[in-house]
Write a sequence for this structure.
């Protein structure tokens, strides 16, 4: 296929979209460079990787979304990538991977089970894939934030934790207050997003449903279910991960806390 023919076959929005995204990435990198923030190219690489992955997923899902079996496979792949990503942020090891997987499985599993068991959404491949992907992503973020905040708090207040241990307290008891604070902080972004939905932000699921031809009322119903499921998954995942990390006997390394 010649270059002119190939160019004619491309969507008309591709050029402006690529230009806009490129400028946004350049501005982001420039701001980070001026501020001397490390990892200035990380956001740009993340955007490029995300765009490539979305392009592949869009092609794959075109033939997958109606098949329960392939939807299940897609969700398993999403879950595997999410658990690995979060575990790497917390210092990858078999124990950390198992803990993150358990926390995410509990969070996403409870949320999805409640939604489909109560009939809040019909259990169809389309809804299972959409809600499953969203809840898995939320659980991944919750596991990472809760784990990092807990370890950072333990490192900063190690003298206090060590004092409790010296008095004979069990490791989980010595870090109980820090764990509760980490879970609370992890819930703040999701809680704020839920409280300000419709006033400050229009969530992607809501806007996408309307653009897809769904009535605003139906789109709103779906978004409310999504937000409630995210809150549930975030709370359960964060609580499980923090509890698993709570048996601290030595001070967490600063490197692990900064990852």
């Amino acid at each position: 296929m010649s270059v002119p023919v190939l160019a004619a076959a491309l969507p008309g929005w591709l050029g402006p979209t690529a230009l806009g995204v490129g400028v946004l990435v350049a501005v982001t990198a420039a701001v980070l460079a001026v501020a001397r923030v490390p990892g200035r190219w990380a956001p740009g690489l993340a955007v490029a990787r995300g765009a490539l992955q979305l392009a592949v997923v869009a092609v794959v899902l075109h033939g997958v979304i109606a098949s329960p079996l392939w939807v299940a496979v897609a969700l398993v792949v999403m879950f595997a990538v999410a658990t690995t990503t979060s575990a790497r942020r917390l210092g990858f090891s078999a124990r950390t991977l198992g803990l993150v997987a358990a926390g995410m499985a509990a969070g996403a599993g409870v949320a999805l089970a409640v939604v489909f068991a109560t009939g809040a959404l019909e259990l169809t491949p389309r809804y299972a894939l959409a809600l499953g992907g969203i809840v898995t992503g939320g659980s991944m973020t919750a596991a990472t934030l809760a784990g990092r905040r807990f370890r950072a708090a333990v490192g900063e207040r190690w003298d206090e934790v060590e004092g409790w241990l010296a008095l004979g307290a069990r490791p989980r008891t010595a870090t109980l207050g820090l764990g509760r604070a980490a879970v609370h902080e992890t819930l703040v972004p999701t809680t704020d997003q839920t409280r300000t939905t419709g006033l400050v932000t229009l969530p992607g699921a809501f806007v996408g449903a309307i653009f897809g031809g769904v009535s605003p009322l139906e789109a709103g119903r779906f978004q409310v279910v999504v937000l409630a499921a995210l809150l549930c998954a975030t709370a359960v995942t964060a609580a499980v991960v923090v509890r698993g990390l709570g048996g601290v006997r030595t001070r967490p390394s600063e490197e692990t806390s900064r990852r």
In short: The CA atoms of residues 75 and 133 lie 7 Å apart. Residues 125-156 form the longest helix (32 residues).
